[in-house]
Specification:
Blueprint: H1 2-19, E1 27-35, E2 46-50, E3 54-57, E4 63-69, E5 72-79, E6 86-87, E7 91-93, E8 98-100, E9 103-105, E10 112-115, E11 124-126, E12 135-142, E13 148-153, E14 159-162, E15 166-169, E16 174-181, E17 189-199, E18 204-212, E19 218-225, E20 232-240, E21 248-254, E22 268-270, E23 277-282, E24 290-299, E25 302-305, E26 310-313, E27 323-326, E28 337-345, E29 353-359, E30 370-373, E31 379-385, E32 393-401, E33 406-408, E34 412-415, E35 425-428, E36 439-447, E37 455-461, E38 472-475, E39 481-487, E40 495-503, E41 508-510, E42 514-517, E43 526-528, E44 531-534, E45 541-543, H2 590-595, H3 604-612, E46 614-621, E47 624-631, E48 637-641, E49 645-647, E50 650-652, E51 658-665, E52 673-680, E53 683-690, E54 700-701
Parallel strand pairs: 1-8, 1-9, 11-18
Antiparallel strand pairs: 1-4, 2-3, 2-5, 5-6, 5-7, 10-12, 12-16, 13-15, 13-17, 14-16, 17-18, 19-20, 20-23, 21-22, 21-24, 24-25, 24-26, 27-28, 28-31, 29-30, 29-32, 32-33, 32-34, 35-36, 36-39, 37-38, 37-40, 40-41, 40-42, 43-44, 44-45, 45-54, 46-47, 47-48, 49-50, 51-52, 52-53
């Protein structure tokens, strides 16, 4: 009994426990969404939990979490614009535990589509058969997430243009395009071609279709009527009006067979009417010429011609030789006369030449004798006969020539005047370019006295104030006009008397006497290492010429500062001297390198000494501009030519400016510039400039 009671109690306890509710703990799912290709986390991606339907979005690091989930099995769906949707494997959530649900998703590939205005994919662009339908549009659409690069190729000759043949499309973008065709280039019936579209997302094809409903006009040309020497009437007929109906008709004609609009003499249009037959009158024909005529008509932008042509010859009038008269001679001199005529009729054909023929004999005077032409055509004309003989009788008659032949006017005569000669008239010009040993002088023969000047020139003397040709002389050709001669081998510091002369068959005439004094010697007897110098009474002796020449007026060579050789091109890239001394060392001195001995380039202070202790006179020596620099203490001088400077490959300022390097740099803070002497006709000063420029070098020595 006691045992039974125990069993009943145990059964009661178990029954109570069975009736109590069982407690189940919730679980959770967490994870990260990343780009499958790059592994980079994806933010703002949508994450959906199924079958619960719960939704969330990923954070800045691609993380997400679902909590308070009932235990069980779930899947995750991930979506993101530009990406393909991703679905996880089955994830089991256990009571009170976290389940991990990392996902990788892939970017959607670029996708090129050919679409219409409503973004509906199309494969064909049909222009139909309407003659006015010549342009149609379509679009390219990027249905992917990456940029697309595209190109279009259209090879059919009747596709005249595509508004754009290449470009790029960003994701989701659309490019509108226009294709234009030329229906005149279509073959009969349906025309079909493939437009190829290539891109980095694949290739597409667009079939372009156009139907040609065009039919040409057919015409006929008929016999030409009402033919005269300058006009005629053309006749034509429309046999088939064509499709579309013709909009223009007329005639073309030429002197060559089978004329076209491009070869016609003149396009003759005729009004478009309901009548198939039409005619037009043409003028401006050339008599006797053969012409070829075709009818034409235009429809659908194309020109059709009659398959036949007709020809005709413009009438030709009777042609005679021209009629011409001879006028009287006027303006008669010893060697010339004015004469002419009048072509009163061309004989029915163009006068191609007219003029006068003349001879000293009256017999058989024709154009085979001397003649002088005076153009062509009808009307009055005159000619000037020259190089006639004085005191001579001439016979003259006018002539005119057309295609028939040559006609002559009456013969008239005249006698040239007797000659009246005298000595020539001549003047003497001033002396120029006077040096120690030379000078330029000349004159002007203003009249030949009626006969040719056979010789002209100047005569000169140091003793006679009225020199003649029996003294020293220098001839200068013959004839009228100005002339100059160069007198050389003159004595320094000497006064010369000069006058011009001219000779004809009557005798010799002289101009007035002028005088000039040659310059004193420049005292250049001293030399250093084979090169002459002048003692100007200064701290250094100055060379008589520039480096690179032996003449005082010679330009010589050009040097960059610190370089010892001239060159053809001067700029910073060709410059080779990079030291920056205060004064150039002799190893970089162009004067020492080229002349040797004691020669060197002057310092800027030595240039200042030259400027301040000498008189500077702008002059020309042997035709070269520059300064004559004369010592104030002893009268000796040097000549500095205005040699200009060289920059890049060119010479600038020659004849107007002088640029002479010193050996002095501009200063320690100016490594790219050096000092030089600069001058022009009214100014001289020290300046600084870039070392790379090509300038003259005038040496000095102790």
């Amino acid at each position: 009994m006691k045992r039974l009671s125990y069993l009943l109690l145990l059964l009661y306890i178990l029954l109570i426990q069975a009736c109590q509710p069982k407690v189940v703990l919730p679980g959770s799912i967490y994870g990260t969404v990343v780009d499958k290709a790059t592994g980079e986390p994806i933010k703002s991606a949508g994450v959906e939990l199924n079958p619960s339907g719960l939704k969330t979005v990923t954070g800045s690091e691609g993380q997400f979490e679902f909590t308070e989930l009932d235990p069980g099995k779930y899947t995750l769906l991930v979506t993101k614009t530009g990406y393909m949707a991703g679905v996880s494997h089955t994830i089991e959530v256990k009571p009170g535990q976290q389940a991990k649900g990392d996902l990788q998703i892939e970017r959607m590939p670029p996708a090129l589509k050919v679409v219409d205005g409503n973004r509906k994919e199309i494969s064909t662009l049909d222009f139909g058969s309407s003659i006015d339908d010549v342009s149609r549009s379509f679009s390219l659409f990027n249905d992917g997430s990456e940029k697309i690069e595209w190109q279009i190729t259209a090879n059919a000759k009747w596709i005249t243009s595509v508004s754009k043949t290449e470009g790029t499309l960003s994701a989701g973008a659309t490019q509108s395009l226009l294709i234009t065709i030329d229906r005149t280039l279509l073959n009969s019936g349906e025309n079909k071609t493939t437009v190829h579209i290539t891109s980095n997302s694949g290739n597409k094809q667009l079939i372009v279709v156009a139907t040609n409903s065009f039919s040409p006009v057919t015409l006929n040309a008929f016999e030409v009527t009402n033919i005269s020497n300058s006009s005629a009437t053309f006749h034509g007929e429309i046999i088939e009006i064509g499709t579309p109906k013709y909009t223009e008709r007329g005639f073309v004609y030429s002197k060559s067979s089978m004329p076209t609009i491009s070869t016609t003499i003149k396009k003759i249009t005729s009004p478009v009417t309901d009548y198939d037959s039409y005619e037009e009158n043409v003028t401006g024909l050339i008599e006797g010429s053969t012409y070829y005529v075709r009818a034409y008509a235009v429809n659908g932008g194309k020109t059709a011609y009659s398959t036949n042509e007709v020809s005709f010859v413009a009438e030709k009038n009777a042609i005679n030789a021209p009629t011409v008269t001879t006028s009287s001679a006027t303006n008669i001199t010893t060697s010339s006369a004015t004469i002419g005529g009048n072509v009163t009729s061309d004989g029915g054909a163009t006068v191609i030449e007219r003029g006068v023929c003349y001879s000293t004999s009256s017999s058989n005077l024709t154009t085979s004798n001397n003649k002088k032409t005076a153009g062509s055509g009808q009307g009055n004309f005159t000619v000037n006969l020259s190089n006639l003989s004085a005191g001579t009788k001439y016979y003259v008659r006018a002539y005119a020539i057309n295609e028939i032949g040559t006609s002559y006017g009456p013969t008239i005569s005249f006698t040239t005047e007797e000659p009246s000669y005298s000595k020539p008239t001549v003047t003497t010009s001033s002396a120029t370019n006077v040096t120690t040993s030379s000078a330029t002088i000349g004159g002007n023969v203003t009249s030949d006295g009626g006969t040719t000047v056979t010789e002209r020139g100047v005569c000169y003397s140091t003793s006679s104030s009225n020199p003649t040709t029996s003294n020293n002389k220098k001839s200068a050709g013959s004839g009228l006009g100005n002339f100059t001669v160069n007198l050389s081998n003159l004595s320094a510091g000497t006064k010369y008397y000069v006058r011009a002369y001219a000779i004809n068959e009557v005798g010799t005439s002289y101009g007035s006497t002028i005088s000039f004094t040659t310059e004193q010697s420049s005292s250049t007897n001293n030399t250093e290492n084979g090169h002459q110098y002048v003692d100007l009474g200064l701290s250094v002796k100055w060379a008589t010429c520039n480096v690179g020449t032996t003449k005082p007026e010679g330009y010589g060579d050009y040097f960059a500062w610190g370089e010892t050789r001239s060159k053809s091109y001067y700029n910073g890239s060709s410059y080779t001297y990079y030291d920056n001394p205060t004064t150039l060392p002799l190893s970089a001195d162009a004067a020492r390198a080229n002349w040797g001995g004691k020669w060197r380039m002057p310092t800027i202070d030595e240039f200042e000494e030259l400027r301040n202790n000498c008189t500077w006179k702008w002059t020309a020596q042997n035709g070269v501009n520059g300064y004559k620099v004369t010592s104030k203490s002893n009268g000796n001088y040097i000549f500095l030519p205005a040699a200009g400077y060289r920059d890049l490959g060119s010479l600038y300022g020659a004849g107007d400016y002088g640029y002479y390097w010193s050996s002095s740099a501009y200063g320690p803070n100016y490594s790219t510039t050096a000092l030089y002497m600069y001058f022009y006709s009214t100014w001289k000063e020290r300046k600084n400039d870039y070392k790379a420029a090509g300038r003259s070098v005038r040496p000095v020595c102790p």
